[in-house]
Amino acid sequence: QFRKQMDDALVGTHDDYFLVRWLRARKWxxxxxxxxxxxxxxxxxxxxxxxxEKWDPPKALQEYLPYGLLxxxxxxxxxxxxxxxxxxxxxxxxxxxxxxxxxxxxxxLERFMKVAYDQSLKHGWRARQLVVFFDMxxxxxxxxxxxxAAECVISTVKQYEANFPELLKMCxxxxxxxxxxxxxxxxxxxxxxxxxxxIVIYKTGVDRWQQQLFxxxxxxxxxxxxxxxxxxxxxxxxxxxxxxWGGKLPExxxxxxxxxxxDKDFTDAQVPxxxxxxxxxxxxxxxxxxxxxxxxxxxxxIKFGIYSVDELSGEKRSEVPLGTVYSNEMDEIxxxxxxxxTIYTVVFDNSASYLRSxxxxxxxxxxxxxEEGITELTNQMDHTQIAEKE
Length: 390
Known about the structure:
The protein has ten helices and 14 strands. It has helices at 2-5, 16-25, 30-47, 59-64, 89-93, 98-123, 147-163, 180-187, 193-196, 209-213; strands at 68-72, 78-82, 130-135, 168-176, 199-203, 267-271, 276-283, 289-298, 302-310, 316-325, 332-337, 342-349, 358-368, 385-386. The strands form three sheets. The protein has a five-stranded mixed β-sheet, covered by helices on one side. Strand 9 (302-310) and strand 10 (316-325) form a beta hairpin. Helix 2 crosses helix 3. The model is unreliable at 370-390 (pLDDT under 50).
């Protein structure tokens, strides 16, 4: 029945298991599952996922994001090992944009799902989920107190939940520092209950996780450093040569995001204290457009948001809720899909500031979905909420 409901949007690779993932994610509510799946298919088109392997990611991502696929569980599911303490989030956010980071994670997840699918041909559908293992030993959580890093984590979690439901079979987080529970309590607000039920966390010095992990993961394919039996060709129990080990990013890979070359036609403006800068964009009846933006403020943060008004019904919607963005620290980049017969208003809001004006350099345009460069953009896909009419 769900296949019939979605028939106009499905392709040959969308088998029954694929459809079941979305139904489970929405507790078998077909209308909710359809809404979720259609939104994700549109997001995949914007990411150009079918051609994502043609993208050449920045060196920082390819060589310094720690992970490795090592072994399988007893149902054939791939096991992803991540020595998370080797992840330099501060450095990474100075080497790539948040959206390059998220796009690379999409690329990796697509690769992992391909491995899992191949495993399922030999072991059955249960192999199409991932077992994930994070080691948080001595991880520096202070770097996530930096606003751009925190925003990246939250938006990435929301992307995952919206576009990769039921991919996780089990997640083990070991050697969690004392502050981790505080951070996780914030992150799990954006996770589905079914996802959080699959995550088990063990604090530093506790090894009870081994009994649970090795009840379904073969020790022979798991690194010896974490209780398995696998060593690499060099005899290394951490198997560094079999994974991307990560590490501190060299400063020569840092980019100055405020002075990057760009073919976009930027506008420099000043938003006076106590005032707003509003930009209006009209989408005609037969147009398929994306509203895309990139901006940076000088020295200070600013409030940013987008709302729309349907020209036929007069209905007003909040597309991007108005909120403070720390665009003085990193470029703010994103896009939303649009609807025909609708006027979109982009707002840079400085009304709460009574002492200073805000200097801003921005590019905001309506572009076609096919326009070259759109696949470089990924952005958090917040659910559109109907706002009260003014």
